[in-house]
Amino acid sequence: MVRYSREADKAEKSCMARGSELRVHFKNTRETAFAIKGMKLQRAKAYLSNVIEKKEIIPFVRYRYGVGRKAQLKNLKVKSAVGRWPKKSCQFLLSLLTNAESNAEVKGLDTDMLVVSHIQVNKAMCGRRRTNRAHGRINAYMSHPCHIEMILEEEPDKIDKAEEDAEMVPAKPTRKIRKRLVSGATA
Fold first, then answer.
1. What does the DSSP assignment read for the chain?
2. Residue 176 in this model has a pLDDT that exceeds 90
3. Of 28, 40, 95, 174, which is least packed with CB atoms within 10 Å of its CB?
4. Contact in structure between 60 and 76 (CB atoms under 8 Å)
5. pTM
6. CB burial class (10 A; 0-12, 13-18, 19+) of residue 132?
7. Backbone region of residue 95 per phi and psi (left: phi > 0; alpha: psi in -120 to 50; beta: other values)
């Protein structure tokens, strides 16, 4: 069995999927994975499909230099004003989400309650090629593949907040706070 970088909190209520040496750009895939972290499974799949069709956008947060500004980012609640539509990264992540969903069905989990709790993208070893340049020179022509792993967990049921007691006594102020109140000093 392959070792993941993190163990699921509840192994019986989670499923995993991973891909190694995937021939897709590391930087684009990292930003795409960061965008879907914390989403429900169905929403993440719909989001990635919308990105492929250019209906929604991936905000670039870490690897943002040289990336153009896009008006679609006004719809998202992010500070970044730059983004792209990385089609190939979305296709690879969609296939991994589908794989994780089938793993969940085999385990007997409710796929409507699954949330992407952990997703990680690591750099893989660069692929080395060469390209010919002017005046008989040769330069490197590298590819930057990546490893992707994800853990999906069932979202726990929400717990109602307990009602507050009407007869709660306020806590006695500490010596430091009493001294400040007497002297009239502010925080």
1. -PPPSS--SSGGGEEEEEEEEESS-HHHHHHHHHHHTT-BHHHHHHHHHHHHTTSS-EEPSSS-TTPPB-GGGGGS--S--BEE--HHHHHHHHHHHHHHHHHHHHHT--GGGEEEEEEEEEE-PPB--EEE-GGG-EEE--B--EEEEEEEEEPPPPPPPPPPPTTPPPPPPPHHHHHHHHHT---
2. no
3. 174
4. no
5. 0.81
6. exposed
7. alpha
Going by pLDDT thresholds of 50, 70 and 90, the confidence category of residue 77 is confident
Tokens describing residue 164: 């507050």
Q: Which two tokens stand for residue 61?
A: 């947060």
16 within 8 A of 4, measured Cβ to Cβ: yes
Q: In this structure, what token pair is assigned to residue 86?
A: 């990385």
The residue assigned the tokens 């019986």 is 12
